[in-house]
Amino acid sequence: MTHFRKSLTALPMLLLAGAASAQDWAGRYWGGELSFGAGSSAYKQDFLATSKTEIDASGGMIGAVYGHNWQTGNRVWGYEADLSVGSFEGSATAPAPICSGLGPCSSELSTLVTLRGRIGIALDNGLLPFATAGLAVGQVEIRADEFACDAEPCATDGTKVGIVVGGGVEYPFRETWNLRGQVQYINLGEEELDGSGPTGTVSAELSYIRVNLGFTRRF
């Protein structure tokens, strides 16, 4: 019975420890990434609330990443921050009244910062699949048709805050160097455009899916 009690006491520690991993992922790391992807600007107007105008966006970015991992057995968790610059943009001249030749709809995401938590499982073959989620902050510019606004194109630009979720995988190809790839969904929320006209407030919701390919170095 005493041995049984000791076994029960040790069980939580064994569960926390997890299985042994051949790869040590613990510590700080930095790296670089290239981003490719697509997104959309979903425009709507108050008096046309049941109808949305979707404007596609696409592009690429280049960025830097920094993070820190902790590891218990084969379980790896930590945080990661990245900064990317480039352009995810799109425009359209239809359908009216929100988009037309008078002042086409357009949107551009030029800078993106994310701060995320990560959790993954270190596999025996060296791979580290992981899930990630957190905060996204983007520098954006959004424009709509002057007909939908107040006799001139309405626009807004500035810093928008939203969410990011995703997942990916890393693989060590040198002693302290890793290759990585991940997919992220980013939503920067809905924003009212300055200068919206008498027919109702114009707003746009920005969302993106991007694929990141890059490398990191542990130190």
From TrEMBL:
InterPro entries: Beta-barrel_OMP, OMP-like, OMP/PagP_B-barrel
Domain Outer membrane protein beta-barrel, chain residue ranges per copy: 14-198
Leader sequence residues: 1-22
Subcellular locations according to the entry: Membrane
Keyword terms of this UniProt record: Membrane, Signal
Pfam families reported for this sequence: OMP_b-brl
PANTHER family: BLL7405 PROTEIN
Family to which this protein belongs: Belongs to the Omp25/RopB family.
Protein name: Outer membrane beta-barrel protein
Species of origin: Jannaschia ovalis
